[in-house]
Amino acid sequence: MDGRIFLALAIFSEIIGTAALKASDGFTKFVPAAVVLVGYALASYFLALSMKTIPMGIIYALWAGIGIVAITLIGTFVFSQKIDFPALVGIALILSGVVVIHLFSKTAVLP
């Protein structure tokens, strides 16, 4: 299977796990805590598989950038967390870095 698919699955699993971490209320709620463990385990597994074909630095940049944006959106819309302007600027800079890597880096091109 394509490394990009594994990376997408890793990112999705990590996002679900992180959202569940907030919902677990410090691991005091069983179902969300179980989702955290499964989500992070799957994320690690798929991340390892994606590293077979994609450079580690590129994976981590995409993982972090997409994850930060997704978790910020989930925090804002699901958990009613507020985010201020400087945080938005920082997230925009991270996201722009991911876009630059994706559009211009020859390292990011898969075999």
Topology of this structure?
Layout: H1 3-23, H2 30-50, H3 56-77, H4 85-104
Describe the structure in your own words:
This protein is mainly α. It has one domain (3-104). Helix content is 76%, strand content 0%. It has helices spanning 3-23, 30-50, 56-77, 85-104. The longest helix is centred in the middle third of the chain and has 22 residues, at 56-77.
Keywords:
111 residues, mainly alpha, 4 helices, flat
Roughly what is the average pLDDT, rounded to an integer? 91
In total, the number of strands is: 0
What characteristic shape results from the CA principal axes?
Answer: flat
How far is the first residue's CA from the last residue's CA? 13 Å
Low-confidence stretches: none
Q: Mind telling me the C-alpha Rg?
A: 15 Å
- Regarding quaternary structure, what we see is single chain
Tally of separate helices: 4
Helix proportion:
over 70%
Helix/strand-derived class? mainly alpha
Task: Give the percentage of residues in beta strands.
Answer: under 5%
Strand count, sense and barrel status of the largest sheet are:
none
- How many distinct folded domains? 1
Order of helices and strands: HHHH
In short:
This protein is mostly helical and 111 residues long.
